[in-house]
Model the fold of this input.
Amino acid sequence: MAPILSGKRILLGVSGGIAAYKSVSLASRLTQANALVDVIMTESATKFIAPVTFQAITQRPVSTDIFDSWSDTGRLRIGHVALAQAADLFIIAPATAQTMARLALGMADDLLSITSLSYSGPMLIAPAMETHMWNHPATQEHVAKLRGWGVDFVGPAEGRLASGEHGAGRVVEPEEVFEVACKVLGRGGPLDGVRVVITAGGTREPIDPVRFMGNHSTGKMGVALARAARDLGADTLLVHSPLSVSPPGGIELAPVRTAQQMYDAVMEHLPTTDVLIGAAAVADYRPTTSADQKIKKLPGQQIITLERTPDILKTVGELRGSGGKLPRLVIGFAAETNDLDENALEKLARKNMDMIVLNDVTAPDSGFAVDTNRVTIFERNGERDDWPLMSKEEVAQAILQRVVARLGRRK
Done:
């Protein structure tokens, strides 16, 4: 789900290059998110893929010629002007060196370049070209000029190129373009200027070089929260242990493995954090020592001595009690199996949080390794809300909307 794209008009420019085929997947992804996608193809792009392919995906006309007309108001309008004025976001993917040169020099000799001159909204470019072309001073000068005008870029990535060479210049995958497009559209949202730090995943405490103590957390809930925060305009950091899902694009990532590393990362960023959401399943215990070599199988029992790990949210709660510049809002999660309400309320009070999200991890449709969640929200002021079964994306969006409301109350 990407509610930020629902109903938005997206202008997708496709320039000539072998990577043009990936733009079909991007158009499909945008359309599935309920965006209205209008495609402009350069003449060279039509040599790689037929316009009818995009038309079938988007169910909308595809523009290829500078003299194309466009009518969506019952009267004929100049094509490039109508396209530019209607769009909420202009994406060019792939963008060749030639296309970026046209944009940077203000040329208007094809439909894509002339429409870009008529457009005044946010623009996102995904470059694709051979490595030497990307690194050429002319290309880099054009990129710098476009960045200076406020144009966003995603990529290029490094990898094998159509030339057979290996290096920078490969267009990023459609999903990454999609994710960054959500971030660009989210700018100026209700959390614009708010720094949100989210923890996600289950930490892994090493026993030896090949074994660890862990839990069943996949990180899906934390990733959904990070995506929702980003889409509301927040400056978002995801501190995460190994995940079973890809983290969202357009945010800052701090990968960790152990509870200590997660603690250190959160404390490092705490002075600049406005909202802290602890969605990670942080190990409560770790082996007191981790063997340097793999522990061999021996007769009899093997005893592993454990010690407590640092408690991130409890430490933050204690710091909040001592004053100073600390998060304006702290939210935790309680993954419980029994005495649900009592355990959640005890944790809320003991860790000095503003809100806690309770879920019963023994339920088959809630908790770890599923795409849905059924949660209860407890707030420090005594409010309680029992939410119905929702997708984790929907739960994340609802939590972040509550964050928006709570921060607004404190202004």
In short: The CA atoms of residues 292 and 302 lie 16 Å apart. The mean pLDDT is 88.
